[in-house]
Amino acid sequence: MRIFSILAAVAVVALLALFILDRPRLLALVGQAEGSSDVAETSADAPSDEAPANLVKVVVQRSVAQKVDTAVALRGQTEAARTVDVRAETSAIVVSEPLRKGTRVAAGQPMCTLDEGTRGTALAQAQAQLDEARARVPEAEARLDQSRAQLEEARINLNASSKLSEGGFASTTRVANTEAALATAQAGVESARAGLQAAQSGIQSAQAAVATAEKEIERLVIKAPFAGLLESDTAELGSLLQPGSLCATIIQLDPIKLVAFVPETEVARVAPGAMAAARLVSGSGALTGGPEARSNAVQGAVTFLSSSADETTRTFRVEIEVPNGDNRIRDGQTAEIAISAEGAFAHLLPQSALTLNDEGTLGVRTIDDDAIVEFYPVALMRDTAEGVWLTGLPDTSDVIVVGQEFVIAGVQVAPTYRELSQ
C-alpha cells in the first residue's frame, strides 16, 4: 500500500510539472485519449452499419406514366385530285387560239373551238323534217276520224238491211253488200290508225335527228370539265382533230391528295376520318423546323384506306385530302405524313436509363419499396430531345437512371432520388 501511495504521489507531481512546464503537450495527450475512446465506441457500433456500407449506391428517378398521342409515320407523295385528258368527239379543224399550259381554267370554259362546217345546215334540215312530221299528225288524225265515221255508217246500213231482209223487203245480196262495206270500213279505221302512228313515229325520228345535229354542233366547243390548271397547251389553231384527238390535259389541285402506303403491322391503327399532318420535302429548310418548314406543313383527314394489300409490298394505300386553294402544293411532291392514332400511356426517361439484361432484352432497371432491383422490358414509342418515351412499365415506377449497369435484378441497393428536372 505504501508503494502504491508513493507511485500515485509521483504521478501527480509529474502531471503538475507537465501542466506547468509543457501545457500544450498535456492537452494533446488528453485529446488522443478522447479519440481513442470515440474509436472504441465506433468499433462497438460498427456491426449495425456494416450492411448499408456494402450496398451499391444508385440514382433513382420516380416516373409517372403520361398519356401520349401516338401517330403512324409514313412517307408518301402528293397526287392531283383529278387528271383528265380532254379529247375531241368529232372531226373538225380548230378555229380558236390555243391556251398555254399553266393557265387556270374554270369549269365549262371553252378550250378548243372547232369549225362548224355544214353542221348548221344539217340542223336546219332536221328541224324542217320535224316540222313536216308534226304537220302530218293532224292529217292522220282526220283520216282516222273519217274512217271511224264510215265504219259507223256501215254498221247502220248492215243493221237496216238485216231487218228488211227478215221482213222480206231486202234481198240477201243487199245484206251481203252491207256486210262487205262494214268490213271495208273496219279496214279503213285500222289503216288510218296505222297512219297516225306512223306520223307520230316520224315526229320522234325527226326529233332524234334534230338532237343529233344539235349535239354535233355542241361538240364543236370543247369545254373544261372542272376548274383546274392546264398541264399542256390546247390544240393549235388550224390543226385537224379527229374523234379521240387530244385537246388539252387538265388537272385539279384543290383539294389535293396525299398518298402513302401503310404497313400491315400499322394498318389497324389507321381509320378513315382520322386527322393527319404532313410536311412537304421541298426547300432547304423543309426538314429543319424553321419558318420554311412551317410553311410546308399541311393538315387534312384520311378519306380512303384500301381494303386489300398490294401483292408485292403487302402495304395498304391510304389517301388524305388537304385543302390547296392557292395551288401552292404541286402534284408529285414528297411528303412526310403523320396520321393520328389512339394515345397510349408511356414514361419519359433519359435515354441513358436504357440497358440490356443477360438475354440481350432492352429494358430499364427499377427498385421496389424495399430497394430491391427489378428488370422491365420496354418498347420505345418515341425519341425526343427531352428523352425517350417508353411503354411496358407500371404506372408509377422508381427507375434507376445512374448505376443500373452495376446491379442486377434481385439485389438490394442504396437509392438516392433526384428530381425530374435534374
From TrEMBL:
SUPFAM superfamilies hit by this protein: HlyD-like secretion proteins
Annotated Gene3D superfamilies: 2.40.30.170, 2.40.420.20, 2.40.50.100, Helix hairpin bin
Domain called CusB-like beta-barrel: residue spans: 258-342
GO molecular function: efflux transmembrane transporter activity
InterPro entries for the chain: Beta-barrel_RND_2, RND_pump_MFP
Family annotation (Pfam families): Beta-barrel_RND_2
Example of a GO cellular component annotation carried by this entry: efflux pump complex
Transmembrane residue ranges: none
Coiled-coil region(s): 123-164, 196-223
Keywords, sorted A to Z: Coiled coil
Family the UniProt entry places it in: Belongs to the membrane fusion protein (MFP) (TC 8.A.1) family.
Name this polypeptide is given: Hemolysin D
